[in-house]
Amino acid sequence: MKMVKVLIADDHALMREGLRKILSTEERIAVVGEAENGDQAIHLAFSLNPDIILMDINMPVANGIEATRAIKRERPEIGIIALTIHDQEEYLFELIKAGVSGYILKDIRPGLLIQTILGVANGESFIPSSMTSRIFAEFNRLYSLSPRNSNTQGLTKREIDVLRLVANGENNRSIAKKLFISEKTVKNHLTSIFQKLGVGDRTQAAIHAVKSKIVDL
């Protein structure tokens, strides 16, 4: 993996310093800048072009959700990981709609933080397993009044099976076991699903599937 450039956005200097020290222990990660508010995060995202932004939610001037929306509109390729003290699903719901690829709490273990950054840089998404079912249940509730969309958008039956398990928070190994296929086959199905739906990762694919009523939860 190439060096992953990270921008830290948090209004607390001690938090930024602590994150920088943790990330300095990983040779595959380079911290390229720090922002103390949402406007700075937007400016530095455009000028430094990081691979990943660790984005605090509650910041002055512009909050993390507003900054995420602004950045993803212009630089959708940048992976944004929300870093917050909150574990309430309404924050996660808004952040997913804004375009984050990960959502982690500030008491996360250093090793898991590094693993999450490297994973998101590699095209993966991260949502705490304890919140996965709740967030997709909320999407399902919001769109439950819409008539079911019979348009599968070109997905095969097997791809829909994979997508349904993704939307339920299953990882590739679990999907492979439940469908009696290899993990490589799961990855191939996901690549095809992303292409057909025009999305970049499994979280976006799951949200699209629920919104479009391709799958039921």
UniProtKB/TrEMBL annotation:
Residues 5-121 form the Response regulatory domain. The modification 4-aspartylphosphate is found at residue 56. Pfam families: GerE (PF00196), Response_reg (PF00072). Residues 148-213 form the HTH luxR-type domain. It comes from the Bacteria. InterPro entries: CheY-like_superfamily, NreC/VraR/RcsB-like_REC, Sig_transdc_resp-reg_C-effctor, Sig_transdc_resp-reg_receiver, Tscrpt_reg_LuxR_C, WalR-like. Keywords: DNA-binding, Phosphoprotein, Transcription, Transcription regulation. GO terms for molecular function: DNA binding. GO terms for biological process: phosphorelay signal transduction system; regulation of DNA-templated transcription. This is Stage 0 sporulation protein A homolog. May play the central regulatory role in sporulation. It may be an element of the effector pathway responsible for the activation of sporulation genes in response to nutritional stress. Spo0A may act in concert with spo0H (a sigma factor) to control the expression of some genes that are critical to the sporulation process.
